[in-house]
C-alpha cells in the first residue's frame, strides 16, 4: 500500500518526552543534520513475538512500533526492566525523564541513515530489513555515538548533531558504526513510516504478503548473502564456535536472512548463536 497524502499533524508530546528532549538538547553539540538523512528502525521481519504471532502481523494489529519495554523482544540485549542495563542507560542519557514512565511511553530505538550504508539501513547489526521514518520524526529524535551501551559522551538533536561527524570519522567495526537514535512520542505505522524496506530473500514469501498489509510503501534492497564456508576465514569475528552452527543451518552452503530466520523458528541452534551467525552474515554478506 502506497501512501501519498501527508501525515497528520503530530500530537503534543507527553511530559516525559519533552523533558528528555530538552535534557539531550542541552548536551548537544555540532552542526545541524543534513536535510537528506532519515531514521531507520532495523528488525528481522520473519521473527515471532512472545505469543508466537509473526512480527509483521502484530505490527499491523497494533498499529505502532514499540520498544522492548513493551514487546520483551530485541535483536540487541534484553535488559529493559527496572534495574537492568537498558533502564540505567536511559536514566543517564535522558536525565531520569523516563524513570517513572509507563513502558509504552519509552522511546523507540533506531539509527541515523545518511546514505553511506547503501540500501541496507543504518544499523544492519539489528536486522536485515527496516522501517524508514518520515523526515518529521527528526524533530522529536535524540542521538548519541557510540551506542548507549558504551556510556557515550556525545549527544545530538536535529539542530546540533556532532555524533554524525564522529561516526563518519570511522575507527569502529562496521556493525558498530551507527548513530543510535531515540524517537520520542511513539511511532505509528500509518503516520510516521515512509516505507518498509525488505531483504530480497523475502520476495514471494508470507513476509512479503504481511508487509503488503501495512499502511506504508513496501520497498526492497538487494539482500544479504554469503557462502557459509567464507566464515571460516573470519572465525575470529564472533568466535570459531559460531562457524559450526552457521554451516549447519546453511543447508546448501549459502546463508541469507531467510535461512537464519527459519533456523531460529525451528530451534535448530541456540538463539544467541544464531544472532551471532546473523552478525557474520551482516558483516561479510552485505550487498
UniProtKB/TrEMBL annotation:
It comes from the Bacteria. Residues 1-22 form the signal peptide. It holds the Pfam family DUF3626. Keywords: Signal. This is DUF3626 domain-containing protein. It comes from Streptomyces evansiae.
Amino acid at each position: 500500500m502506497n501512501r501519498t497524502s501527508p501525515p497528520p499533524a503530530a500530537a503534543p508530546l507527553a511530559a516525559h518526552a519533552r523533558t528528555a528532549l530538552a535534557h539531550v538538547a542541552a548536551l548537544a553539540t555540532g552542526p545541524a543534520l543534513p536535510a537528506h538523512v532519515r531514521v531507520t528502525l532495523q528488525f528481522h521481519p520473519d521473527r515471532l513475538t512472545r505469543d508466537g504471532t509473526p512480527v509483521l502481523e502484530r505490527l499491523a494489529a497494533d498499529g505502532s512500533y514499540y520498544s522492548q519495554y513493551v514487546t520483551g523482544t530485541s535483536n540487541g540485549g534484553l535488559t529493559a526492566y527496572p534495574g537492568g542495563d537498558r533502564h540505567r542507560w536511559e536514566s543517564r542519557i535522558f536525565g531520569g525523564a523516563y524513570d517513572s514512565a509507563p513502558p509504552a511511553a519509552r522511546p523507540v530505538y533506531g539509527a541515523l541513515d545518511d546514505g553511506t550504508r547503501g540500501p541496507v539501513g543504518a544499523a544492519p547489526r539489528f536486522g536485515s530489513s527496516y522501517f524508514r521514518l518520515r523526515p518529521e520524526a527528526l524533530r522529536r529524535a535524540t542521538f548519541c555515538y557510540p551506542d548507549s551501551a558504551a556510556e557515550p559522551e556525545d549527544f545530538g538533536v536535529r539542530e546540533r548533531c556532532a555524533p554524525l561527524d564522529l561516526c563518519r570519522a570511522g575507527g569502529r567495526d562496521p556493525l558498530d558504526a551507527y548513530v543510535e537514535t531515540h524517537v520520542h512520542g511513539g511511532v505509528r505505522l500509518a503516520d510516521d513510516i515512509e516505507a518498509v524496506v525488505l531483504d530480497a530473500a523475502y520476495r514471494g514469501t508470507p513476509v512479503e504478503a504481511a508487509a503488503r498489509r501495512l499502511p506504508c510503501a513496501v520497498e526492497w534492497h538487494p539482500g544479504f548473502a554469503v557462502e557459509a564456508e567464507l566464515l571460516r576465514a573470519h572465525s575470529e569475528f564472533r568466535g570459531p564456535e559460531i562457524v559450526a552452527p552457521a554451516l549447519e543451518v546453511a543447508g546448501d552452503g549459502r546463508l541469507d536472512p531467510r535461512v537464519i530466520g527459519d533456523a531460529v523458528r525451528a530451534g535448530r541452534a541456540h538463539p544467541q548463536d544464531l544472532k551471532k551467525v546473523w552478525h557474520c552474515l551482516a558483516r561479510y554478506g552485505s550487498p
